[in-house]
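Q: What structure does this chain adopt?
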Amino acid sequence: MKKWLVFALTLALVVTTAVPAFAGRHVQNEPARVSEDTGYSLYALSGRITAIDPVARTVTVWIKNGNTLLKEYEGTEIVLYTTEETAYEVSHSPTTISFEQLRVGFEISSIGHLVDGFWVADRITAT
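A:
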């Protein structure tokens, strides 16, 4: 019984010191970087639409709040690129909308990925 207790405590000590070492060298308060393995990183933002390009199917957004990836862009504008897979929704509603129904001035939230320097929207939700 005593041997098992010593073994369990030793194992717990090894696990608690080894796990952070495997987590990498992430520095808090440093913006997330694009993963070199995958080529993209997840973003989340809320803001206001300031321009829409129906030909390129892009949406320019003034960012009010963003996740770590977007912190340095808060208070500025970025261009969201849309794809055929981008979903358009209305907050707190089962209603879906289309790209053509978006309007300058709409308050939105969006999630997507930073892919090769382009902000690609997976979802745009009109709030």
